[in-house]
Amino acid sequence: MGTTLNGTVDVPVVVDESKDAGENFPGDKKITVVFVLGGPGSGKGTQCANIVKHFGFTHLSAGDLLRAEIKSGSENGTMIQNMIKEGKIVPSEVTIKLLQRAMRESGNDKFLIDGFPRNEENRAAFENVTKIEPEFVLFLDCSEEEMEQRILGRNQGRDDDNIETIRKRFKVFMESSLPVVEYYNSKGKLRKVDGGKSVEEVFEAVKEIFSPYSAQANTVGNSKVSTVKGFLRWWPDFRIDGSHVACRWFRTARRILSRILTKAMSPKATYIFVVCIAVFAYVYMPTIEGYM
Length: 292
Ligand SMILES: Nc1ncnc2c1ncn2[C@@H]1O[C@H](COP(=O)(O)OP(=O)(O)O)[C@@H](O)[C@H]1O
Ligand SMILES: Nc1ccn([C@@H]2O[C@H](COP(=O)(O)OP(=O)(O)O)[C@@H](O)[C@H]2O)c(=O)n1
Fold this sequence. Notes:
The protein is α/β, with parallel strands linked by helices. It contains 11 helices and 7 strands.
């Protein structure tokens, strides 16, 4: 059952210990993380979608994960909804758990984390919990006038895309998020781009920054492959007891396979190969289980 703690901003936060939220992620796994920061409406989501297509990263939007958590009917849903409506920053422990779970479930090892860390508490807590330092931080610099116009025109039916909340979000961005941007600047990790230009022009600048990663784009970062890998991860727990020897055998095989695939095969070949393995496992696993 869940326990109730006080979040650092004095809001009740429910920590559900019954679910594996992925808190031990990444463990020993080598992970590449790029934070994508910028004011509300600066174009973070738009550019992340382009980066995913070209460079094989998995895009994780902290805002999208929080909105999905509200929809899922989670015990923290009402608290998250109220904070988003007020443009406030949700306690780090909630957002970090969601990020860790999404990273673990993706099966990828390269992540664009969009809209996080949004304050000093987010930044320090993420580093403490995951021990991950970002490769660099992409910062989309854009004027408030431009961002306001974009948000008012985006029509995604979001509760917080109204003029009153937009102003509050701008204030939070100036007071809490810009210091984080400054922190990474002082560490030489900031890559700043003029986000006020057209989508294509911004992406030209972004491409330059990500060019060292293009050689690695032909790996398992491909989203279809990630989906299949996610299935492989989940499947044995669904079919049989997760502690069963067949399940452990399957996990070890998958880990080895994943390492080989990441280095040696194109996304298409990887995809076909992984689908074949999944079908084979689905058909033969009950037989294997019978012999273990
Ligand atoms: N460079 C750009 N020029 C004009 N409009 C843009 C640009 N980038 C994004 N948009 C539009 O602005 C809105 C906000 O962009 P979005 O990517 O959702 O921003 P964020 O994720 O930073 O909140 C969307 O409707 C998007 O289509
Ligand atoms: N790290 C984060 C990211 C978002 N959020 C919340 O989610 C809201 C929407 O964030 P978002 O990144 O989806 O959208 P933009 O404000 O960037 O357009 C924020 O205003 C916060 O209330 C948060 O609390 N912590």
